[in-house]
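Retro notes (design track)

What went well: tokenization of the new backbones is finally stable.
What didn't: we kept losing track of which sequence belonged to which structure.
Fix going forward: every design gets posted as structure first, then sequence, in one message. First example under the new rule, 644 residues:
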């Protein structure tokens, strides 16, 4: 039985906590707008004229963020969405003041480093509590519970089992470490949020204002709308393109799914499959260069490599991910005889490029700037200017001065979820660095895995998926990269491959039942059963569960220690392997595939994805034989119809 389909706004309110904010009117709306614009202007000012000292930059960034979160997110869901409760006013004032205490008394705090006064501790405790409360509102309870668990561990060290035991940390010592150093709340995650991430989110806000999202959907329609299963392929292509500028799975589903899911249902796709296609494609946006998800910026900082190196490493895995989804969609369409949209009803590719192709100029330029060595911050700054400038090239796409101002407001609001997730993740990192629990847990993981790489990878995957059920990708990556990635590195895995492994599974949790938020959002728009949609999304995303294991075992796919020839060969054989995996999941290629044949297709596909001469030869042989048998089967099935 088909359920009531939800609108994009209803989906965001239900499944994306970051979008479930108050709808203020009148004077209060203007006040919030003014604060948000000032926030964006501060970030732009420091991007142009130079970032402040780390502690000052991050403190001001957090101060703006806490004020906006307490004004926009009510304490209780039952409270009014049209006005701010007096309690939230008080919390907003305290939230703004606590980080500014560091700015105002910066020199004094530096002079008495590691010797906090009573007032310092009171302000620090207040700031810590406010960060946790803001995280509860904007991100959800799971994040708060994880951070609380780490805080409890800091105090309970002397009472823990041997492998986890430590001397314990006093209240003053812990607060000083978490709130007055750049090892805790104001650590690397918030530092990245206050520089790179903010500007890229602002860039995305301006691209959306120019109508780039609609342009991507129209271009995808022109390219693939006519093909077998056209609307589903449009969903894959448009969501992949949108993923270059958006780091939220649920927001991607709501943005492109409101167009593509009804089209798929109209064509004849089952509602649960239509919702799954959009969810899987949208989730992959966080894996898609050049922007990717916010955690990619953290990865570059944690590992200490240029961001462009992360982008290049992500390119082939992202290609395999989207190829897997595309092939799955194609096979599902062939299996059910689903046709595309008549060409006469679709936009013309050349006309689209001529009328709106200039909107993509900022994306092309940002890739170029990153490749030639610009910092992500400087590249994003130029891209923002170009996004506005490119829109002015044609009257139909021109944005007004009002749109520019509204972009400042929207960008500031859009960063709040990432900002507070980064601040809360800083609490976790602070406890890890203070107690040394990261090495202890890495050692425990190694012991649990018996020193074997595959079990260690499996436990890391399960940890990431479990955390992903409620913790945002950014925080998920911070936790797994702090605890699990070091264990993989100790086993000889390249640092980038270990971190990319944790990053991948943190993202793919959004389409992994039982809690698959992106799939549930797709189900909301499709009016389908959420769990069935989740399992369909899981099948389509099979590449994301296989590829990370492959690039850890053979880092060629990440362009580590690889030549152009090996990269090209590995990519081509892996793409053929994706055909095998997708066939195994869908149960169709040239004809329906039996269960034993599906197992063989899966194994043959795995061998082709795994780089190596012998695996490629065996996998290629298995795939060729299987496809030949399917060809003969199709001829046998077609023969009675020909005779008739």
């Amino acid at each position: 039985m088909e359920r009531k389909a939800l609108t994009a706004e209803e989906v965001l309110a239900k499944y994306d906590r970051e979008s479930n904010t108050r709808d203020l009117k009148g004077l209060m709306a203007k006040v919030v707008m003014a604060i948000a614009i000032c926030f964006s202007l501060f970030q732009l000012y420091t991007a142009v004229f130079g970032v402040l000292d780390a502690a000052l930059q991050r403190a001001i960034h957090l101060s703006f963020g806490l004020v906006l979160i307490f004004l926009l997110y009510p304490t209780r869901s039952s409270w009014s969405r049209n006005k701010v409760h007096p309690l939230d006013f008080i919390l907003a004032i305290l939230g703004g003041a606590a980080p500014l205490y560091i700015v105002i008394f910066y020199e004094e705090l530096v002079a008495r480093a590691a010797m906090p006064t009573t007032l310092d501790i009171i302000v620090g405790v207040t700031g810590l509590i406010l960060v946790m409360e803001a995280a509860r509102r904007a991100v959800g309870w799971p994040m708060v519970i994880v951070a609380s668990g780490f805080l409890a561990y800091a105090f309970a060290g002397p009472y823990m089992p041997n492998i986890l035991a430590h001397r314990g940390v006093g209240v003053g010592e812990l607060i000083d470490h978490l709130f007055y150093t750049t090892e805790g709340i104001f650590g690397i995650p918030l530092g990245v949020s206050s520089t790179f991430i903010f500007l890229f989110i602002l860039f995305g806000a301006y691209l959306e204002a120019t109508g780039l999202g609609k342009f991507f959907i129209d271009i995808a329609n022109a390219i693939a709308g006519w093909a077998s299963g056209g609307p589903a392929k449009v969903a894959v292509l448009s969501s992949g393109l949108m993923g270059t500028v958006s780091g939220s799975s649920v927001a991607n589903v709501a943005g492109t799914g409101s167009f593509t899911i009804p089209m798929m249902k109209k064509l004849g796709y089952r509602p649960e499959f239509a919702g799954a296609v959009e969810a899987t494609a949208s989730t992959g946006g966080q894996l898609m260069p050049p922007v990717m998800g916010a955690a990619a910026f953290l990865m570059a900082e944690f590992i200490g490599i240029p961001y462009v190196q992360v982008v290049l490493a992500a390119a082939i895995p992202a290609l395999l991910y989207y190829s897997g989804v595309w092939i799955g969609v194609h096979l599902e369409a062939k299996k059910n005889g689903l046709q595309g949209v008549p060409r006469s009803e679709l936009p013309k590719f050349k006309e689209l490029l001529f009328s709106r192709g200039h909107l993509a100029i900022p994306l092309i330029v940002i890739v170029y700037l990153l490749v030639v060595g610009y910092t992500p911050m400087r590249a994003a700054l130029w891209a923002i200017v170009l996004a506005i400038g490119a829109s002015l090239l044609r009257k139909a796409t021109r944005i007004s001065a009002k749109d520019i101002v509204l972009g400042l407001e929207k960008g500031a609001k859009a960063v709040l979820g990432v900002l507070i997730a980064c601040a809360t993740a800083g609490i976790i990192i602070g406890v890890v660095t203070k107690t040394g629990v990261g090495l202890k847990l890495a050692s425990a993981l190694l012991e649990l895995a018996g020193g074997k790489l595959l079990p260690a990878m499996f436990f890391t995957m399960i940890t990431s998926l479990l955390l992903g059920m409620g913790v945002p990708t950014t925080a998920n990556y911070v936790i797994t990269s702090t605890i699990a990635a070091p264990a993989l590195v100790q086993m000889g895995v390249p640092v980038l491959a270990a971190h990319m492994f944790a990053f991948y599974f943190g993202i793919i949790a959004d389409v992994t039942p039982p809690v698959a938020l992106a799939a549930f959002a797709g189900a909301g728009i499709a009016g389908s059963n959420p769990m069935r949609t989740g399992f369909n999304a899981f099948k389509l995303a099979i590449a994301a569960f296989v590829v990370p294991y492959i690039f850890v075992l053979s880092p060629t796919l990440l362009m580590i220690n690889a030549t152009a020839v090996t990269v090209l060969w590995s990519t081509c054989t892996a793409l053929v392997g994706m055909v095998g995996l997708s066939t195994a999941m869908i149960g169709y290629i040239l004809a329906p595939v039996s269960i034993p044949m599906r197992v063989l297709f899966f194994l043959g596909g795995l061998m082709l994805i795994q780089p190596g001469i012998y695996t490629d030869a065996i996998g290629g042989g298995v795939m060729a034989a299987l496809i030949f048998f399917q060809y003969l089967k199709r001829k046998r099935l077609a023969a009675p119809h020909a005779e008739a």
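Added context from the reviewer: The chain has two domains: 1-562, 569-644.
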